[in-house]
């Protein structure tokens, strides 16, 4: 663990201008690193993670990796705002990405387009989040890992996007301990939809 990097993760990240978070029925925001509709024309589950090292990011990622194996007709994309080296180290610690596509967005341009900015103290260290962090460790063996880069104040969020590039489900994370409900996202994408 690098103490100076851990300390730096508690500083607020630089300001970025935010778009409004997409709602159900909106076109999914595109970025050069994350284009919708996707090239493979598959429905997609998108998770913008808090930071590499966060136990709730890890729980979300592991749920996505399992689901990606079970649902090969759906793409799973995880966005990391930690830098490339830190993201790769984190993935190696988790035994690889599996079938999840991992996009590194250290500049946080994707986060900004999806309306995800800096959060408050209450979001990060609420009593409920601290209790749930302890429960996650005790029940699933997922504990805090070293934070090599990224900010603890960056919010996360989760969305399900259909093959035509429309948002069908999702929301910005309400608190740090808000983990992707991957079953709900998949169920939404497998349900027949009216054309928007």
From TrEMBL:
What is the protein name given in its UniProt record? Alkyl hydroperoxide reductase subunit C/ Thiol specific antioxidant domain-containing protein
- Fetch the InterPro entries from UniProt: PXL2A/B/C, Thioredoxin-like_sf
Q: What is the lineage of its organism?
A: Eukaryota, Fungi, Dikarya, Ascomycota, Pezizomycotina
User: The organism sits in which domain of life?
Assistant: Eukaryota
According to its UniProt entry, this protein's organism is Penicillium cataractarum
